[in-house]
Amino acid sequence: MPSPAVPSYASGTSDVPLLGDTIGANLDRTVAAHGERDALVDLPSGRRWTYREFQADVDALASGLLAKGVGKGDRVGIWSPNCPEWTLTQYATAKLGAILVNINPAYRSHELEYVLNQAGIRLLVSAESFKTSDYAAMIAEVRPRCSALTDVVFIGGAEWTELAATPADAAALAAAAAELSADDPINIQYTSGTTGFPKGATLSHHNILNNGFSVGELCNYTEADRICIPVPFYHCFGMVMGNLAATTHGACMVIPAPGFDPKSTLDAVQAERCTSLYGVPTMFIAELAEPEFDSYDLSTLRTGIMAGSPCPVEVMKQVIERMGMTEVSICYGMTETSPVSTQTRADDSIERRVSTVGRVGPHLEVKIVDPATGRTVPRGEPGELCTRGYSVMLGYWEEPDKTAEAIDAARWMHTGDLGVMDDEGYVNITGRIKDMVIRGGENIYPREIEEFLYTHPDILDAQVIGVPDDRYGEELMAWVRMREGAEPLTAEALREFCSGKLAHYKVPRYVHVVDEFPMTVTGKVRKVEMRETAEGLLGLKRPSTA
User: SS3 helix, strand, coil % of the chain, rounded to 5?
Assistant: First the structure.
């Protein structure tokens, strides 16, 4: 009889135990070991902290919040671009057991009001403004309708200054710490819903502390590392994979700018001799395209993380070759899993790092299932990726029904992502279940076509979506960003480029040339918005599913 097929299941064994600390206790442990090393550097303001100085400011802010009556379980919102105050608030709330609610810096008043009320935020720490966002005006507009909100503290204002300068009350902080458990909720992050309002993924100390630690372990971080963090703190990429990966290892957090700017990022890497750089693919594309790129000394870089959306092969190769990030890691995850579930390792071949999202992380499990039946598929077959372990969120804040839709009875988180697991346990993400295009009965995964389009000499970036079609149900449309000086691409020219290289049904029928793609604040391309725009441009309507 033939051997039974090996199932698409893998578990992450590890000799390194999970951390049982709360975030505050873990920070204090790091300070005891590495107190005089750099903890935080803010390039825009020129401010810097050693670990001991950082701990002192965290404890002062925590004491200030305590004096305001903030305690365990209270929700404290933060609405701000990247700045040191964001990080101080992250650790100060953790010391008290207050639940930090991250608010997307791109939100407008309607979304702000929803989050303030849905999470029951009591105290809001906010920037006054950033770019075109007048945060103070939006807060004033919605505050009368937010009954739980008793305090608003603006970063840099008199009240913030007073709060941050509160004498640290060691006895009160110790008493607060004694009431905390690593399994307590400590953070709510709102996932950008494609329909309806976003949901608040509720994460514990244990969730995010261990995920940050694990990511750092697989990047081989030590106290000698300096991590450049241009990705937003409001998202897991910044506050977990960045901040918590650093503080669990005694490494330094480097803030290049309040929001992403390619030149500021390269300046920071050079000035602070960073060893690690984070970003989503579009950030690395922008950095590599900087006119003065070749003049930068990036020789200290050895590693970093590219994540947030599928990483184009050509971009990955350039990051390794031109930026010297020979140990760069690909991470895959989602907010609901703290976030990382799979990661490439430093000793993985370049081929593995450009074609997969790595293997399951330590102390976690992943499997690939048939979305229709829920059964685990054999290795090599596509299906939905599910993950289980310490990283899976406690649930969506006060939404048990939505939690039950995402996490099954056996505590598997269903990601909604399509993937394939190979014989060695490496996972390749082929797209979102909802992004898959069905053209005339053929299942088409946009990622495959996007990777091919990156080989076109004039294409800087490409995204492929499905648009309605009377004959085939759906047709393909490529959105492309052209290299500077290149002629705009026509559908005919693209067909010619694809001829003989892609199956006919995978060749995009439509081409749309743009300067930029619609993005979330975390750098994910909004394909839902692209489809809506495309349908308007082409005068198309989706067939009714009723």
Answer: 35, 25, 40
What average pLDDT does the segment 394-402 reach?
97
Judge contact between 315 and 281, C-beta under 8 A.
yes
Contacts 24+ apart (CB under 8 A), 459-465: 459/483, 459/489, 460/285, 460/289, 461/282, 461/285, 461/312, 461/517, 463/517, 463/525, 463/527, 463/530, 464/437, 464/508, 465/435, 465/437, 465/527, 465/530, 465/531, 465/534
Q: pTM for the full model? A: 0.86
Residue type, 59: D
Nearest to 335 by CA among 215, 239, 447: 239
CA distance 397 to 408: 17
| Cβ–Cβ under 8 Å, residues 313 and 211 | no
Classified as helix, coil or strand, 384 is strand
What's the confidence (pLDDT) of residue 10? 98
Q: Count CA within 13 A, CB hemisphere, residue 389.
A: 27
Q: Provide DSSP, 313-364.
A: HHHHHHHHHHH--TT-EEEEE-GGGSSEEEE--TTS-HHHHHH---EEPTTE
* 45-64 exposure pattern, b = at least 16 Cβ within 10 A, e = fewer: eeebbbbebbbebbbbbbbb
The C-alpha atoms of residue 220 and residue 326 are separated, in whole angstroms, by: 13
8 Å CB contact between 65 and 123: yes
Which of the four pLDDT bands, split at 50, 70 and 90, describes residue 194?
very low
Q: Which of 109, 129, 123 is nearest to 259 (CA)?
A: 129
Asked whether residue 433 carries a pLDDT value surpassing 90, the answer given is no
Q: Is 260 strand, coil or helix?
A: coil
Query: What average pLDDT does the segment 20-48 reach?
Result: 98
- Whole-number Å distance between alpha carbons of 248 and 33: 11
| pLDDT per position as a tens digit, 471-502 | 888 899 999 999 999 999 999 999 999 988 88
Which residues lie below 8 Å from residue 7, measured CB to CB, with a gap of 6+?
367, 376, 377, 378, 379
Confidence of residue 195 (pLDDT cuts 50, 70, 90): very low
Cα–Cα dist 458/357, whole Å: 27
Ramachandran region, residue 88 (left: φ > 0; alpha: ψ -120 to 50; beta: rest)? alpha
Whole-angstrom Cα Rg for the chain: 23
Mean pLDDT for all residues in the chain: 93
| pLDDT exceeds cutoff 50 at 545 | no
Interval 108-129: pLDDT, tens: 898 899 999 999 999 999 999 9
Phi then psi for 400, rounded to 5 degrees? -60, -35
Residue type, 193: G
Is residue 116 within 8 A of residue 77, CB to CB? The reply is yes
Structure tokens at 411: 């505590």
Residues 6 or more apart from 195 whose CB is under 8 A from it? none
